[in-house]
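Researcher: We're teaching a course module on how sequence relates to structure. For the next exercise, students receive a sequence and then see the predicted structure as tokens, so they can try to spot secondary structure elements on their own. Here is the exercise chain.
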Amino acid sequence: MGVDFNPAAVQRARAVVSALELGNVEVVAGDLHELDPAALGGPFDLAYTRLSLMHQADPVRTLRRIARLLRPGGWLVAQEALRIPAPRSHPHLEALTGYWNLIYELLDRAGVPPGTVEDLPRSAREAGFEVAGMCGSFLTADPEMVFEIHAAIITAARERALQSGIAADRIDDLEREIRAAKDGGYEWVSSPFYLDLTLRKPTVT
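Model: And here is the predicted structure for the students to work with:
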């Protein structure tokens, strides 16, 4: 069962499910905080978030909501991008830093508290989870592919950024420079740097 607030992301996920002929996967559009847990088919043994908690204005509230969807002893695996450091490349491309600053500026303007990702272990404990594991990760891959992913994130965030008052020229210049880097002889480019958490809902609350 997949949940996403963005209808376009849900439609894309449904297309993938259909193409792969997955009969046991359902994707719904909606706000996790408002959806009826029973309607989602829970309780579940496992929940997974990726680049989701970093967008929450009240991560403790969101984590409590996820906990309600889990059976006692159930697990939450979270992979969320740290603000610092920004994605990197070799040779260095300053636009990657500018793009990552733009994404986090957008989160600031949306009311996401500073340090949300860094504070997730504390937030998880406050929400009633046990922190079973914690590490960090990043990946490097083909520069053409990863530069395109970073540029696509800017494209996806463009409308929201404009609505928040960020200048169109700034957005478009960063996207153009990162896309142009695909043919620039770069040796490697990284993903964001992630905080990876494994959380467990206690069997007794």
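Model: If you want an answer key for the exercise: The domain at 48-200 is CATH 3.40.50.150 (Rossmann fold). The two ends are 25 Å apart (CA to CA).
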